[in-house]
Write a structure and sequence with these properties.
This protein has about 325 residues and is an alpha/beta fold. The chain is built from 14 helices and eight strands.
């Protein structure tokens, strides 16, 4: 499939629905069902929807790639663009990732919320205003689309009188700090990442007898200087960390989000990285939904890829 077609489709869907895939918006905050977290407060958990969206994005990309290989592929892609402009949610009926993957990603968000509530019971959640950040638009250089979408997100924050947010993944953290500063006039939202917040507290996470290795996301390590914080938290639990050859600010890319644009190139990068990590431990900690998804595609069955939040909540 032509890369330009993928990017245009992503932009059109986001502007039309607020999400990069046409799904029911309640899917973004369903993780909070039966979860005791405030609706109003001084500081808000803002997931940016990336963890929740990854299963749907992955399925959509694979679906579009498969139909593009059909003899009538180009015509079907053009038809999809037309449908999106008229009734984008019609396509949601064919986007059906595995329930297991959806539940796993929702569990990660719940784990992070548990950690935050442990240090401050007054932390609130945005629920229906937990709007997708638009980070894929920003990362892919779709500036016109991102400008429109970011204005909508900022307006929703102002309507809720949001002044400070806690982000939970590297891409959302970076776009809320850098991208919004560039594209939104009078942007005044304070942004703190949950790993930064936790590492600055005396949170008791209990002890865990484990040896593992860490995959540093490029965005955390190279742009946001979030390298020592996760290690401090893990070491406070007595966990032994074996560093891969490329780690910290010298980390090696997982191959994502290239997967949607060049699947084979992305897979080759992921295979190189998984080999580096497995040379140290068969238990690998990730801190990014894109990294976890991309490395999962190439890991051997015996290896374990675990989001850091699962380890940090082991004793909670």
């Amino acid at each position: 499939m032509d890369v330009k077609d993928i990017m245009e489709l992503l932009g059109e869907i986001t502007i039309k629905t607020g999400l990069p895939v046409p799904i029911d918006k309640s899917k973004i905050f369903e993780w909070a069902n039966n979860f005791n977290i405030n609706r109003k407060g001084e500081i808000y958990l803002y997931t940016g929807a990336l963890y929740q969206l990854i299963p749907y994005i992955n399925y959509t990309v694979k679906y579009l790639d498969s139909i593009s290989k059909l003899p009538s592929g180009d015509s079907l892609i053009n038809l999809a663009k037309i449908i999106i402009k008229i009734s984008p949610y019609y396509l949601s009926s064919i986007i059906k990732p595995s329930i297991k993957e959806i539940n796993e990603n929702n569990a990660i968000v719940r784990n992070i919320a548990k950690l935050l509530i442990k240090i401050d019971k007054n932390i609130a959640y945005l629920y229906e205003d937990d709007i997708y950040s638009g980070v894929l638009l920003y990362d892919m250089g779709l500036d016109d689309y991102f400008s429109i979408h970011s204005q909508k997100v900022f307006k929703s924050f102002k309507n809720r009188n949001v002044k400070k947010i806690i982000t939970i993944d590297p891409h959302t953290t970076h776009v809320m700090r850098e991208g919004y500063q560039k594209f939104v006039d009078n942007y005044d939202i304070e942004v703190i990442n949950y790993l930064e917040l936790l590492s600055n507290t005396n949170i008791d996470l209990g002890k865990l007898n484990k040896t593992l290795t860490i995959h540093d996301p490029c965005v955390y390590s190279r742009y946001e200087n979030i390298v020592d914080q996760p290690r401090k938290l893990l070491k406070s639990m007595g966990i032994r960390i074996k560093e891969p050859k490329r780690s910290g600010k010298n980390t090696y890319c997982c191959g994502g989000p290239l997967e949607s644009l060049s699947p084979k190139f992305s897979e080759d990068i992921a295979k190189s990285r998984i080999d580096q990590l497995l040379s140290q431990s068969d238990t690998i900690i990730t801190m990014c939904p894109i990294c976890k998804a991309n490395l999962s595609r190439v890991k051997p069955d015996y290896a374990k890829l675990i989001d850091i939040s699962e380890i940090l909540t082991s004793n909670i």
